[in-house]
Sequence to fold (377 residues):
Amino acid sequence: MKNLTNILKKAEKALRKKKYKEAIKNLKLYLEINPRSVNKWSNLAFSHNKMGEYDKAIDSCILGLEAEPNNKDALNNLFFAYDQKGDFDKALEVLQNYVQFHSVIIEQPFNVHENIILYSNNKFIIKYDKKFLKNQRDQSYSEFENKYDSLIDKILPSIDPNNIIPLNFLSFFKFSNIIKSEKEIDVLELMLESFPDKSRVLNKLGLVHLKQQNYNKSIEMFNQSLKINPEVIDTWIFLGDVYFQMRQFNKALDAFKHALKIDPKTREAWMNIGHSYIKLGEFNNAIDTLKKALDIYPSAKRTLEFLTELSPNIEKSNVKIVYKLESTKYIWYYLAQAYYKVQKYDKALEACNQSLKINRNFDKALKFKEKILSTKK
Fold:
């Protein structure tokens, strides 16, 4: 018994010091004597996961679950290992089992529009500035999400496999690979069972269907979301995006205008209305609308000031976020198009240059500038 206690102390010390090879050695010795200890099987799986030995982690989890079916730590580590291996069928089975036996009700689900993720020293931190984000929604939902992909890839190895499932439910599975697989819709449908605000998950499902060009299904998801909460600006904008991609520009206009009824200072709605007017050939309406958008959001200055203030915190946490906010480049670009259509080429060139000031490598604006200059000749 004394020898067993010493082995356990060595294993726990190794885990604390992140010496996983040593932890594995001692945990195996312990489990030879006490094979019914599910916590130690989970610790062994955790150590294998941290070493990237996913097959061994899976074997350890299965043995642990034989001793105690549906153990939280074992299921978390099992999901982590399957997810890292790319065995998404098995990973989904583990998630379904977890949801069946454990609560994953989320009171504060992660919102990519309202938060900036930082993860350091095994702590999940949300940095946000409500005033800033209320007035500086600088890009579309999908663009905003994509900015985080490189960050998530960098920090994923630091995630605690013992808590990977709750963390993923909190973050719409941004910390796992399964959400990028063909199982994405299955995972989101599973999340519907756990979220008190189901409109958030329905919106996410709508965006996935939109990405896959399943337009009717996308519309169905957004309409379901609006039945639950008709006052969510994003949902109206997403619905307008679907109709816009379907080239039903009048329906798109209706959706974007509904967003403005909720908040007349929604930049994205003004921008999309202006773009819709261009597609409908109503260029003067487009110009007026896009000018209003610029009156509300004249530049990226405040956005860049905010990031400058945030930068030291990012450095301290050893997390680098490559996040270039290009506040109004599309508004200026669409305004250039509208001016060009009414043959106001000098104003079109000025608008195009303003877009390029925000992003000098903006390919669409560069090509359109060439077109304006060629026409002026």
Notes: The two ends are 92 Å apart (CA to CA). Residues 106-157, 298-326 have pLDDT under 50 and may be disordered. The first helix runs from residue 2 to 16. The domain at 2-101 is CATH 1.25.40.10 (Serine Threonine Protein Phosphatase 5, Tetratricopeptide repeat).
